């Protein structure tokens, strides 16, 4: 299995604090030593970093933990390989362009015999079930929404249907973004936490690091963080339900979908 | 204008020595201070690094210069902006997936009024003429070769025609790869150099660094480096002709095209 991380914010925000905790799980406090990756959106483009080394002793990870890269949407992943060899080809997050913007996606879990075609517009480059699911989702979205609609909820609803359908073939926790919206689908395990004023002090579970967010924020800042497991031990993380998808925009949950919303879903 | 860099090798090779020279031109010995980027292929996937800071004092660049990343194909770019604002969206190299493999491209020059459509399958994410040309090339290739042909020379020939056609609209020096082949098209300025046994000592022009390749290679190694300007001062760099395209595979020039080969070319 793997660990997912994602962030949505209403102002460019660095993810150094959370990343410092996450990276410890990449081979030190957690077993996820088979590479890692992270993408920081700059407008419609994602600045990607991938490494097949364990995150906790990766010099690229050290650099990211200590050099604030400010972004409104971030997606990260630390890998414990199950499907696909340990190499850069199979390192999440994956990236494709659709509608003139980068889509970035990371998956936690394992799918078996997913009946979806990866011979559409998008094909996978590596050999993971995760990238196969990602290109399948994008092939469906592209076919059904050749241009970006002005009104996005039908896209979100379709994303939820597709996640529900893929979820039948295994464990399918997912974070995916099109640069403005971040979607997080819970199959078995996913938490989120929204930070807003009044900001307080947070304490990492995996490293001896605390931060006083009040010193780094303004009253207007809103940031939501998504993770496979809570990253801090003194904040209220919300545990998502199986089949639940949240849509985040500018740091806030703007829409939620539950299993009953997907009754017409198909792949 | 900008500076291009590319490498093709028959064994995974690090580009640290060349990159150390190139990065000095990113704001120190050269004026190309508007960001930089580099992609290292690992099989069909490219590991990308982008930064909008000047290369010569970028901590990401420092890391790459000092941490050998071994690859058979590398494409790099340091930017002096002319078309498109200075930001990560407009930072080369650009990347798209076609045929289940990453294509990576960097451009030096400027195109005006290129009549090509960027509303096809691929769209640009940023606002550069360079990315517009890249997605146009890929749209043409994808339309004409929906699947990767086993016999690739017709694709190379078409690439040359497309480069010749785009060259009518400005300066169009280009390096582009599909992971196995690296193509370099010269519009106005591009050099290349093939290193093979017996290896000697090379000396950077832009930094006080020398290397004895003999200590880092075997008799069988072959590496070709492409650059806007020679990076070393004691080796024989070959200056390309206007309209010439070389195709590199496993470190060697396997095919060359000249302007007269493109008489039937069109966009």
How would you sum up this structure, described in words?
The structure is a homodimer of 267-residue chains. With 267 residues, chain A is α+β, with helices and mostly antiparallel strands. Chain A has a single domain (2-262), classed as 4-Layer Sandwich (Glutamine Phosphoribosylpyrophosphate, subunit 1, domain 1). Chain A has helices at residues 16-24, 59-66, 129-144, 153-167; strands spanning 2-14, 36-42, 45-51, 70-79, 94-98, 101-111, 170-177, 181-185, 191-196, 201-203, 210-212, 222-227, 238-239, 245-249, 252-257. Chain A has a 7-stranded antiparallel beta sheet, covered by helices on one side. In chain A, strands 5-6-7-8-14-15 form a 6-stranded antiparallel beta sheet, with helices on one face. The first copy, chain A, has a two-stranded antiparallel ribbon with strand order 10-11. Chains A and B meet through strand 3, helix 2 and strand 5 of A and strand 3, helix 2 and strand 5 of B.
CATH topology (level 3) name of chain A: Glutamine Phosphoribosylpyrophosphate, subunit 1, domain 1
How many angstroms does the end-to-end distance of chain A come to? 24 Å
Proportion of residues in β-strands of chain A? 35-45%
Tally of DSSP β-strands of chain A: 15
List low-pLDDT spans of chain A: none
Number of domains of chain A: 1
- Major sheet of chain A: order of its strands? 3-2-4-1-12-9-13
Task: Name the chain pair whose interface involves the most residues.
Answer: A-B, 29 and 29 residues
Instruction: Give the class-level CATH name of chain A.
Output: Alpha Beta
- Let me know the CATH homologous superfamily of chain A: Aminohydrolase, N-terminal nucleophile (Ntn) domain
Sheet having the most strands of chain A: 7 strands, antiparallel
Tell me the overall shape of chain A: globular
What average pLDDT do the residues of chain A reach?
Answer: 92
Query: What oligomeric assembly is this protein in?
Result: homodimer
Number of distinct helices of chain A: 4
**Secondary-structure class of chain A:** alpha+beta
Please trace the helix and strand order of chain A, writing H or E for each element. Answer: EHEEHEEEHHEEEEEEEEE
Helicity of chain A, as a percent range? 10-25%
How much is the radius of gyration of chain A in Å? 17 Å
The name of the CATH architecture of chain A is 4-Layer Sandwich
């Amino acid at each position: 299995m793997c660990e997912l991380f994602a962030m949505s914010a209403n102002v460019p925000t660095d993810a150094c604090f959370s990343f410092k905790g996450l990276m410890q799980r990449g081979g030190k406090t957690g077993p996820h030593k088979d590479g890692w990756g992270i993408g920081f959106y700059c407008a419609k483009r994602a600045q990607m970093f991938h490494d097949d080394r364990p995150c906790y002793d990766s010099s690229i990870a050290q650099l990211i933990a200590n050099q604030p890269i400010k972004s409104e949407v971030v997606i990260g992943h630390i890998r414990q390989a199950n499907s696909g060899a340990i190499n850069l080809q199979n390192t999440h997050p994956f990236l494709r362009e659709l509608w003139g913007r980068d889509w970035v996606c990371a998956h936690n879990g394992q799918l078996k015999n997913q009946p979806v075609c990866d011979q559409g517009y998008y094909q996978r480059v590596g050999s993971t079930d995760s990238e196969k699911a990602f290109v399948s989702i994008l092939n469906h979205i592209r076919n059904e929404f050749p241009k970006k609609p002005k009104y996005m909820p039908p896209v979100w609803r379709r994303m939820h249907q597709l996640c529900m359908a893929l979820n039948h073939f295994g464990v399918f926790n997912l974070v995916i973004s099109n640069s403005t919206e971040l979607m997080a689908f819970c199959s078995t395990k996913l938490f989120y936490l929204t930070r807003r004023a009044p900001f307080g002090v947070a304490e990492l579970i995996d490293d001896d690091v605390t931060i006083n967010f009040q010193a780094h924020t303004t009253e207007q800042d809103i940031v939501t963080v998504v993770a496979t497991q809570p990253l801090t031990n003194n904040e209220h993380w919300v545990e998502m339900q199986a089949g639940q998808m949240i849509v985040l925009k500018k740091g806030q949950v703007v829409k939620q979908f539950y299993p009953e919303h997907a009754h017409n879903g198909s792949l």
